[in-house]
Design goal:
This protein has about 180 residues and is mainly alpha-helical. It is globular, with a radius of gyration of 18 Å.
């Protein structure tokens, strides 16, 4: 049995009819987990250790093949986290800053990965990059994230004025 199968109680899933979204092909597990966590009734333990890691080497992976769907998954995951924080009363200003800072980093990281993917044309890379940085979730995150909690503070400060972010990435990464 895996750790998750030991930790996840099927009666909670059945009782609250928690299901994976049929319309999403990316990020559906994160949204499922947010719904599950909400129904635990406060019986949650936080472990401050990285216990697993994603290995991003599959060139045919869905996130590589369809950046529109991948970007949409970030939107869904971000909204699921915000909803969970609100439902649990964990939406303190500090937690909200952390949430926005984390998602800012994740969305920008993906945008830059696409922008530097040499398997795509420059036009495709630029279009993919724009898809991520024009997400409503990214817009919210760049406004509410903390400069102290983001990966590249220089890019973060430029992202406050989105056209400069585009220009910076275009010059540094895409071209």
């Amino acid at each position: 049995l895996s750790i998750l199968s030991v930790l996840i109680k099927d009666y909670i899933i059945k009782k609250h009819n928690i299901r994976f979204s049929k319309g999403d092909s990316l990020g559906e597990d994160a949204v499922f987990n947010m719904n599950y966590l909400y129904h635990l009734g406060g019986n949650i333990a936080y472990v401050d250790k990285i216990l697993y890691s994603y290995c991003d080497v599959n060139p045919t992976s869905l996130c590589k093949a369809n950046y529109d769907a991948y970007a949409k998954s970030y939107e869904n995951i971000f909204n699921a986290y915000k909803e969970l924080f609100t439902k649990l009363g964990a939406d303190s200003p500090e937690n909200i800053i952390d949430l926005h800072s984390y998602h800012y980093n994740e969305i920008l990281r993906s945008a830059i990965l696409y922008a530097t993917d040499k398997a795509m044309t420059k036009k495709e890379r630029f279009k993919a990059f724009k898809t991520f940085i024009y997400l409503p979730a990214f817009d919210q995150c760049r406004k509410k994230a903390s400069a102290e909690k983001v990966g590249d503070r220089k890019v973060f400060m430029m992202s406050k004025i989105r056209p400069f972010l585009l220009l910076y990435i275009l010059i540094k990464e895409i071209l």
